[in-house]
């Protein structure tokens, strides 16, 4: 085991080490004052144009996502690699697998088994276990294991920030592979995924430097939370990301199964160690640098979070990271506009900014909606005398119907027919998502670099889960 020093790891130029610049703080303060003025004027004059504005923004974000998912249904943008292509070639380049672990001793045997089943020449494979210095338990577990010659371990010093991004940069500094992929502790990738990635890279446009594999869950039916979570992931990775790819917009990466050209990843200086969703940030930086991400038609199976408290921790971290990414890349809006272009600048705001805005605004919108209803403002559907109720009602009704439909579409795409009824109840899931979002927003201002650990191995011991095609995955 060995450790790299802090001064030898790559760090991107734009990081979330500082949450907000002075100009951003002034802009946010101005927006808060302006919002207070709007509320005051509304109470004084019963002006309803703020409701119009919020409803338009809300509906625009919702239907933008709905449009992208429809694109994902209609346009087949994934890179599809057949078994014939894989079996017909024998010259495989060196491939690095990074496995960042923290307090994962319980699920480590499953991970090792999954990696061992990967169909790739072992003499062309490099597996790097990335452990944290203070995680003595996992270190001892690894020491007791007889790891193959293509496995090695590095130790990340116990210094802030304590994030996955920092750990991955330590692994990148020691990687020798022409290509590189990240897997999480609970991941079970399809055995041919690396070979598909190599073939996909060689077939894709030279500007494609990252291939995002699809993620899904091997315990979809454990409880109602895993059913909702699986429906969400099926929509996100099978429809939403391919839809984004179809319009060549910046893609926020998933946290695992990202395949990279290692030389370009080093050129980009790896991941932001201060961002708690380093994957989303890297996806944006890839696009800003003139490169592209494509979706690879292969699946990595993960464990859906089945405990509510644990799920809230995970969701709040994701939302906080999206907020970090948004404010990092909007520090200089004109520069961002120049690099992305007008159309992709709009896409960035709707995809990254809209993601957390809708989740945070949802409970506010519903509160205003029911407040108007209970206050007796409603005297007729779409009555001009009850504009707040009608405006917010239309946006909320249409937005929720759209999101129910896209969840159903995601389940149908994955053949999760048993999840169709839970998908119809997904508005209850969005309440949980908003709770996680508000927690993430609070942490962004008060604990921006705090990484809330997600516990794994929460599925019943000895339980065999199956994917929709009926294959054993655990």
3D architecture notes:
By secondary structure, the chain is α/β, with parallel strands linked by helices. The chain has a single domain (1-474), classed as Spore Coat Polysaccharide Biosynthesis Protein SpsA, Chain A (Alpha-Beta Complex). The protein is built from 15 helices and eight strands. The protein has helices at 22-45, 49-74, 83-87, 108-116, 136-144, 164-174, 193-203, 224-246, 262-267, 278-288, 308-329, 333-374, 387-413, 420-424, 426-446; strands spanning 95-100, 125-132, 151-156, 179-182, 188-189, 208-217, 258-261, 292-302. Helix 8 (224-246) crosses helix 13.
The overall pLDDT average reads 88
Count of beta strands: 8
Order of helices and strands: HHHEHEHEHEEHEHEHHEHHHHH
> Which structural class do you get from the secondary structure elements?
alpha/beta
Task: Please tell me the total number of domains.
Answer: 1
Broad CATH class? Alpha Beta
Instruction: Please tally the helical runs, counting DSSP H or I stretches of 4 or more residues.
Output: 15
Flag low-confidence runs.
377-385, 468-474
Architecture (CATH level 2) name: Alpha-Beta Complex
The CATH topology = Spore Coat Polysaccharide Biosynthesis Protein SpsA, Chain A
Principal-axis shape equals globular
């Amino acid at each position: 085991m060995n450790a790299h020093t802090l001064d030898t790891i790559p760090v991107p130029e734009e990081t979330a080490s500082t949450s907000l610049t002075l100009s951003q703080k002034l802009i946010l303060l101005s927006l808060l004052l302006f919002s207070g003025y709007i509320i005051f004027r509304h109470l004084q004059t019963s002006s309803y144009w703020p409701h119009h504005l919020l409803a338009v923004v809300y509906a625009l974000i919702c239907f933008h996502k709905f449009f992208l998912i429809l694109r994902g249904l209609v346009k087949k943008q994934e890179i599809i690699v057949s078994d014939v292509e894989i079996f017909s070639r024998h010259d495989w380049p060196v491939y690095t697998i990074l496995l960042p672990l923290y307090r994962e001793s319980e699920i480590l045997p499953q991970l090792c088994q999954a990696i061992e089943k990967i169909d790739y020449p072992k003499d062309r494979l490099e597996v790097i276990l990335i452990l944290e210095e203070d995680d003595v338990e996992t270190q001892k577990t690894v020491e007791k294991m007889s790891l193959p010659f293509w496995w090695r371990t590095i130790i990340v010093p116990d210094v802030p920030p304590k994030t996955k991004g920092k750990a991955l940069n330590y692994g990148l500094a020691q990687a020798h592979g022409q290509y590189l992929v990240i897997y999480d502790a609970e991941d079970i990738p399809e055995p041919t995924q690396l070979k598909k990635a190599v073939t996909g890279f060689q077939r894709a446009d030279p500007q494609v430097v990252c291939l995002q594999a699809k993620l899904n869950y091997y315990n979809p039916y454990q409880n109602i939370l895993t059913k909702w979570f699986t429906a969400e992931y099926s929509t996100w990775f099978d429809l939403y990301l391919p839809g984004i790819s179809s319009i060549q917009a910046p893609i926020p990466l998933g946290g695992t199964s990202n395949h990279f050209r290692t030389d370009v990843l080093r050129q980009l200086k790896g991941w932001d160690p201060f961002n708690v969703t380093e994957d989303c940030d890297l996806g944006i930086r890839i696009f800003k640098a003139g490169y592209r991400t494509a979706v690879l038609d292969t699946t990595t199976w993960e464990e859906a979070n089945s405990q509510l408290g644990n799920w809230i921790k995970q969701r709040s971290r994701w939302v906080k990271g999206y907020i970090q990414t948004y404010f990092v890349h909007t520090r200089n809006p004109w520069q961002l506009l120049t690099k992305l272009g007008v159309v992709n600048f709009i896409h960035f705001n709707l995809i990254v900014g809209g993601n957390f805005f809708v989740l945070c605004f949802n409970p506010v919108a519903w509160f205003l909606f029911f407040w108007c209803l209970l206050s007796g403002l409603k005297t007729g559907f779409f009555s001009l005398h009850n504009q707040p109720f009608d405006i917010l009602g239309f946006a909320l009704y249409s937005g929720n119907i759209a999101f129910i439909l896209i969840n159903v579409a995601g389940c149908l795409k994955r053949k999760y027919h048993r999840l169709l009824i839970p998908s119809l109840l997904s508005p209850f899931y969005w309440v949980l998502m908003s709770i996680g979002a508000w927690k993430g927003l609070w942490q962004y201002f008060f604990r921006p670099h705090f990484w809330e650990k997600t516990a794994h191995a929460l599925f019943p011991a000895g339980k065999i889960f199956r994917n929709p095609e009926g294959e054993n995955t655990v």
